[in-house]
Amino acid sequence: MKKFYYILLFGFITVSCQKKIEFDLPEVVQTLVLEATVENGFAPKVILTRSQGYFDVFDTMSLINMFITDAQVKLSDGINEFDLDFGLIATNGLPLPGYTTSNPDVIGQFGKNYTLNVYHHGDTLTAKAQIPYPVQMDSVWFDPYIAFDDTLGWIKCNFKDPDTVGNCYRWFSKRINSYTYNYEAPFDNVLGEVKDKRFLPPIGSTTDDKLFNGLKFDFVLPRGVNGVVEGPDDSGVEGSFFSRGDTVVVKSSTTTYPIYLYVRAMENAAASNGSIFSSSGNLPYNVEGDGIGVFYGYGSSYDTLICE
What pLDDT score does 72 carry? Predict the structure, then answer.
């Protein structure tokens, strides 16, 4: 009886000590957010948006209003400066509002250093990026995983890092063959569609060469997943694997140390999303001025293989 009394007393004290706390969140000051890319063989791509508060309403209209359409965007290659025009550009497989140009003189070239300047209603952003010379794969091949009766597997790559410290890399893949069958709903209409509409990096897609400078070695390239827009084979046993019969383009990109740091931090944040042990923080951006963001520079080469 005395034990029951103590339990009631503890419950009464706990309830009586509760206090409702109310506070006003500070108003979010919107800032410019830049995501831009220069890459060999392609025109520059610049996406410019406004930041949004964590608790702000997010719907179709707010998404549309995030994009900035009236900025002045200039790109310099160290010799000439070019104006970029606003329009719809293909980014991550989707047409998004952004800035680019059809001028052939602005196509990305190996070894060049680029400076991007953005002006918008008194705000200025500046960012720099380089397109390094690529380091090509020596060989790529399909490595079946025995647990799945050799029908699924990863891609293995053989690679020789130059004997100079400071090289940084990022790898992507893209399946260019089509689905030969349908899945259960809602993916019962994928027959005939190309499997990947863009190059996908797996988690852990970037590295520097501190641990393998000057070495020749093999590494495994798992299949990347298309973010929150998952395909029919992005979950379950097929996730991260390639299928026997897939035709895969492997994209090997050399980049710079600031981009390596940004991508590594971004992937770590994505991998720990929802973890109670993760901590918030700003990514190591390479943008200066009145905003945040990243200006990627990639020197890329490509290999194609059939998984067999």
Answer: 97
145 and 48 assigned to the same domain: no
Same domain, 121 and 179: no
Instruction: In whole angstroms, give the CA distance from residue 234 to residue 200.
Output: 12
Q: Which of 130, 158, 178 is the last residue of a domain?
A: 130
Spatial separation of the C-alpha atoms in residues 243 and 230, rounded to whole Å: 17
Residue 111 lies in a domain: yes
Final residue before a domain boundary, out of 130, 164, 182:
130
Residue 191 is encoded by which pair of tokens? 């027959």
Model confidence pLDDT, tens digit, residues 132-189:
999 999 999 999 987 777 899 999 999 999 999 999 999 999 999 999 999 999 899 9
Q: In which residue ranges of the chain is pLDDT below 50?
A: 1-10, 12
Residue 59: give the domain boundaries: 32-130
DSSP of 14-83, one letter per residue? Answer: HHHT------PPPPPPP-EEEEEEEEBTS--EEEEEE---TTS--SHHHHHHHB--S-EEEEE-SS-EEE
Give residue 171's Cα distance to chain centre. 11
Tokens of 220: 């495994």
Q: Closest Cα partner for 50 from 41, 37, 60, 63?
A: 63
**Cα separations in angstroms, 232 against 63, 187, 201, 227:** 26, 6, 18, 13
- Residue 186 token pair: 């809602």
Tokens of 198: 């863009």
pLDDT at 299: 98
Strand partners, 242: 153
Total domains in the chain come to 2
Task: Give every CB contact of residue 100 below 8 A, 6+ residues apart in sequence.
Answer: 43, 44, 45, 46, 84, 85, 87, 89
Q: Confirm whether 114 is domain-assigned.
A: yes
The 3-class secondary structure across 205-235, one letter per residue, is CEEECCCCCCCEEEEEECCCCCCCCCCCCCC
CATH number, domain with residue 249? 2.60.40
CB atoms within 10 A of CB 58: 12
Per the structure block, which two tokens stand in for 178? 């089509």
